[in-house]
Amino acid sequence: MLKGKLIHPQILSALASAGHGSTILIPDGNYPFETGANPLAERVYLNLAPGNVTVTDVLEAVLSATPIEAAQVMARHDGAEPSIYAEFRRLLPDDVALTPLERFAFYDEARKGDCCLVIATGEQRVYANILLTIGVVDPPPEQAV
User: What pLDDT, on the 0 to 100 scale, is given for residue 79?
Assistant: First the structure.
């Protein structure tokens, strides 16, 4: 039995198989999981019921297991900032900014070959989609160059 924040075996396996530059899509419940992401990406369905599990629940667990160097979000058509962006900023490392992309540009990014994992959620907030880019694990100080 594992005792970390992330214990889902399929997600852990996908993250262990990924590397620097791979992307992870955590979309809301309205997102087209099958057509809006790389068809070869591992898919994990955590959308148990409306509102369960949320994007921020998944984001927090993923951040406990892998370094993130970039984050892209789906921008609203009217330019207003969705309230969930503040939660994303609170959870993400301070040096990771949110990069808003127009809806279809976001789909295009998620469909790229670097997208290795899609974690479907039951998130009900709209425009609550985030595409994370995996960073690097820093070496111990004594091995740093």
Answer: 92
